[in-house]
Amino acid sequence: MKSFKPISHTLAPFALALAAALALPAVAQNGPPVVASDPPSVTATLGRSGTEPNTFTDLDTNRDGMLTRDEVVGDTQLSRDFDKIDVDRDGAITRLELKAYMDGRH
């Protein structure tokens, strides 16, 4: 007589693979992680005149986690120093690049 494996042992790897495949689109749609608040050095006033301080989140109007020249046009300091801050020369300032710049100024 043949010995049969229980169905649960045979289907378990397939069920796990199916669950993982179904979870991937949900993760991909969410985009970059949203940061609840900016680090203190990034929250400081960045150079725009006015009463409200600019934060990275305020300036990142398309919420892609990076600042382009168009997004910093209203901030005189970031506009002026854009090339200094964008150390990898990809045309965008990341939170890490801005934090390094801000930390280096103090």
Indicate the mean pLDDT: 72
In CATH, the architecture of the domain at 40-105 is Orthogonal Bundle
Shape: elongated
CATH fold title of the domain at 40-105 = Recoverin, domain 1
Number of strands: 2
Largest sheet data: 2 strands, antiparallel
Characterization of this structure:
The chain is mostly helical. It is built from five helices and two strands. It has helices at 7-29, 40-43, 56-59, 76-85, 95-105; strands spanning 66-67, 93-94. The chain has a two-stranded antiparallel ribbon with strand order 1-2.
Key features?
2 strands; 106 residues; mainly alpha; two-stranded antiparallel ribbon; 4% strand; Recoverin, domain 1
Secondary-structure topology with pairs:
Layout (H helix, E strand, L loop, with lengths): L6 H23 L10 H4 L12 H4 L6 E2 L8 H10 L7 E2 H11 L1
Antiparallel strand pairs: 1-2
